[in-house]
Amino acid sequence: MKCFFSSSLDPMAFRWSLGNHENFALQIADATNFYITEKNRNDIKNGSILRLTTSPSVQLHERIQSSSMDAKLESLKDLANASRDITFAQEFINLDVHCSFGDLLSFTLTAFVELMDHGIVSWDTFSVAFIKKIASYVNKSAMDTAVLQRSLAILESMVLNSQDLYHKVAQEITIGQLIPHLQGTDQDIQTYTIAVINALFLKAPEEKRQEMAHILAQKQLRSIILSNVIRSPTPINDEMAHQLYVLQVLTFNLLEDRMMTKMDPQDQAQRDIIFELRRIAFDVECDPNNSGSIEKRKSMYTRDYKKLGFINHVNPAVDFTQIPPGMLALDNMLYFARHHQDAYIRIVLENSSREDKHECPFGRSSIELTKMLCEILKVGELPSENCHDFHPMFFTHDRSFEEFFCISIQLLNKTWKEMRATSEDFNKVMQVVREQIMRALTLKPNSLDQFKSRLQNLSYTEILKIRQSERMNQEDFQSRPILELREKIQPEIMELIKQQRLNRLCDGTCFRKISSRRRQDKFWYCRLSPNHKVLHYGDLEESPQGEVPHDSLQDKLPVADIKAVITGKDCPHMKEKGALKQNKEVLELAFSVLYESDEYLNFIAPDKHEYCVWTDGLNALLGKEMTSDYTKSDMDTLLSMEMKLRLLDLENIQIPEAPPPIPKEPSNYDFVYDCN
């Protein structure tokens, strides 16, 4: 081999009478013990100590050919360690040595793994017999841990490095034979097992991936990984986290085909899915006999498709021709309608009863949400080599993506209401929902229920707070001068909010009268007098269009007589009406005004915004603190704007932490002019 220092070793061999210089080599005398070659000679640092030793080829010949089993064992131990050196590896491959397995199997496989990592020879050179032999070690129920680990590593490398070997390995190894290795407690074995499954999944032809996914589901791979790996008392190391991430990505990538499939508006089977969505949502309104004229049925379909929130009311199939998300969006909608039927019907009917501009279009929302979820989970992209970002909650359900969608579509509807959004705000709502989902995922919930719970805490108001807090931190709003300025401005802002609340009370609000059995179509109106001294209220025959004059409201309540404002379950009308007491939504909108002789004026606000306006306004009239979420949100928004306006002239100027020093007093005050 000509990779050693011929020019350097010749004089050494002659001087010390060593004989043929090809039998010797130079080695770095440190922990690595790497051999010196023409390729790495320039990497030798000044002062490095070199060792003259026998060449790798001589060592291999002497040790491997030994008749002693102990000598062979020691040789293979050294070989396993030395195989990391490409020089040693090259010599071993050139010798074409076939080591005996038996007791030496572990060291032999270790050496083989290290040797192949150098990429000196192609994986395609190995025979079917060799593959069968390695596969046999994996298929055995009882096998030495080290041998099993290295066998799994070899199989993974074979599959990843050669398409031809993939087919051969796939014939020898089945998912059923790999599953038992996941049920043990050795995390390294579990990691290599999942790595082999991932490799088989990754290299499988597209037409076989769905089939393989079906087999994985039959073998309950997900639940086995959840029980034995994710919920194991052993902490998950980085390599295991990476393999779980890869499995997660490959599983979600199975959705790519549906995501990139356009709906065929002429395909009756696909159109039947849309009919099914309509049937589930409007079951009571459906006409089973299809009676009436064609025009009447078309009109009825158009009306229902509009209620379902499709963009194209006449032919909603056109909505699913956009890719992504294609047919995947329709799949999600059907899953939601069938498996969460009550929530589906509630969302559709709730939005169809709102004003046109305030309805949250279920169809359009579902399509855009599906597209967003695919972007978040990077459906269709290959897994990153260095990422460990797996989510335990996706291993808790066989239809995790569909359940993920079901939770998210309900979140979207909730956020839409919290933002009091209109159709013009659609993109803004989607941005907020994306932020809510991303922030909840960052917390790595262990289950879908936990994910849902985290989202409950990330309301639109909370998102506004987080955004504001982040902006303040980014703009260095924590310095002492800035904080002092904020404290000075806050009372002014609070007074502004107070005036706004009182002005809203002066405008008045229409409230519904609600009985314990059902909602009645009766209304009453309440408004504050312009001088803020009297509440005027009275019954109405129908919902008013605009403001109701004070003169038409028969009853009055002097503000001076009001003793307290009571909210929620403490309200007397919530205690009296059992049915309402159980309705959490109504409970959160209830408040009462307590006045003389323990009399009450009971309210149920039409929505959360009006609830906050009225409770804030009434507390302001009583000289109490306004504590609603809307007050906090308004305070943050207005304070931020005011701070930015006042600091506009100081942009790019460093504000000192301490005020400038006060100069010394002058020696005399002769310059002072007495105006008197």
TrEMBL record:
Pfam families: ELMO_ARM (PF11841), ELMO_CED12 (PF04727), PH_12 (PF16457). PROSITE patterns: ELMO (PS51335). This is ELMO domain-containing protein. InterPro entries: ELMO_ARM (IPR024574), ELMO_dom (IPR006816), ELMO_domain-containing (IPR050868), PH-like_dom_sf (IPR011993), PH_domain (IPR001849). The lineage of its organism: Eukaryota, Metazoa, Chordata, Craniata, Vertebrata. It comes from Scophthalmus maximus (Turbot). GO terms for biological process: actin filament organization; cell motility. Involved in cytoskeletal rearrangements required for phagocytosis of apoptotic cells and cell motility. Acts in association with DOCK1 and CRK. Was initially proposed to be required in complex with DOCK1 to activate Rac Rho small GTPases. May enhance the guanine nucleotide exchange factor (GEF) activity of DOCK1. SUPFAM superfamilies: PH domain-like (SSF50729). Signal peptide: none annotated. Residues 269-441 form the ELMO domain. CDD domains: PH_ELMO1_CED-12 (cd13359). GO terms for cellular component: guanyl-nucleotide exchange factor complex; plasma membrane.
